[in-house]
Amino acid sequence: MSGLPSFRAVMLMVIAVLAATVAAGGVVVLVSDDVVGSTVGSTQEPPVRGKPSPSQSPAPRLDQLVPTAAPVKDPVRDLARAGTKVTATPPRVLAIAPGTVPKQTRFRLGELASVRKATVVDAGAVKVSGTSINLLAVDPADFRSWTPQPVADQPAVWQALARGELVTDAAAMRKFGMILGAVYQVDGGPRLRVAASAPLGLHGVDGLVSADLGRRLGFAQGVAVLLHGKAGKIRESGVRRLLGKSAQIVMLDASARTAKQRQPTQQQPAQDQPAQGQPQQVTVGRPGSYLELYKASATRCPGLSWTVLAAIGQVESSHGRNNGPSSAGALGPMQFMPATWKHYGVDGDGDGKKDIWSPYDAVPGAANYLCANKAGQGGERLRKAIWFYNHSWDYVNKVMGIAEAYARTYA
Question: pLDDT digits over 238-255, tens only?
């Protein structure tokens, strides 16, 4: 029809309007329940570090996106090398004595009827954010056989203990909502990284630390007794006679004793078999998704939301999909300059090195850098810390907008 603009002219007008909208501020787009793409706050890239342009294709959900890094190299070479086999001798009795168990009493415990093996370790409780956690402090090399076979066979568990990290019981991990790889502040004490989750099979024990760390934490020395023998055979009365009436005694093989009373003629379960329903998976080392990695890394900076780290990860490399190097020389999934990494990089996964290219180091390194600039205080302090990350207020607005979208998406 005459007087009407052509189809091509209309499309050019639409494109011009869209371009003007982007220049005025842009939007954060949600596709497939995740945050993608971003021209928020600026039509040009922040000028400071010359980071690579992130992919504009829709990002997968963070809980489905698995970080990738070089294989872990064992830093503790004298523990659990290939070919080393430990035969599990699970404890049948766990007792907590009112004081240090004397050497003579230890010998007499080992001589009780049906006792084949005995050990005494340190024990204590720590509080994390006011929640009490019961721990045993053990020698990694000596204590391996006292755990279920899948745990004894996992080198990373014992390497973590040797590094001074925390190994939590799988049930306690769920009960307290702890995150693998997260760092928790002990009330009045050090910060402990949760390096592994394992079914320890020790009723009332929430985790293990090394004996050296236990001494630094002020644990009671030589008060926890573990006895191994044939399931259902060690008598509680004999243990209490030696440890005293005030000792706390847990019969860890109670299910075998009950089964024996109810069905004395039936074959008992194998002595190394864990209680029915007990999880057997040993989880060690590294969070399994970017969502878990961001959450774990944020614990290094109390007050910092994981969504800020996730937003920076999206802007900088689209969660490891565009790691650089950038035109300015920034490297890795969080786009650190090497000089900055030298001061703020961390060994986030306990593999013995600080790798700028590894997300397991780079993401907690970013949390460390933000925290050094007081990001945990929130408000303008947080915005200023993000500005230090990349000197552009457009960049700050972009990160904050994406962080808010992540908070809504994963609420």
Answer: 999 999 999 999 999 877
Q: Which residue has the higher pLDDT, 126 or 23?
A: 126
Residue whose tokens read 């596709």:
31
Distances from the Cα of 206 to the Cαs of 203, 241, 286, 289, 294, in angstroms?
8, 27, 20, 25, 24
Say if residue 406's pLDDT is above 80. Answer: yes
How far is Cα 403 from Cα 395, in angstroms, rounded to an integer?
A: 12
Q: Is 78 exposed, middle or buried (0-12, 13-18, 19+ CB in 10 A)?
A: exposed
Is residue 26 pLDDT above 50, yes or no? no
Peptide bond preceding 325 in cis form (omega within 30 of 0): yes
Task: Strands of 11-149 (E only): list them.
Answer: 29-31, 34-36, 93-96, 115-128, 131-138
> Of 300, 296, 279, 274, which Cα lies nearest the Cα of 287?
296
- Tell me how far apart the alpha carbons of residues 370 and 403 are, in angstroms, rounded to a whole number: 15
Among 257, 250, 391, 402, smallest CA distance to 328 is for: 391
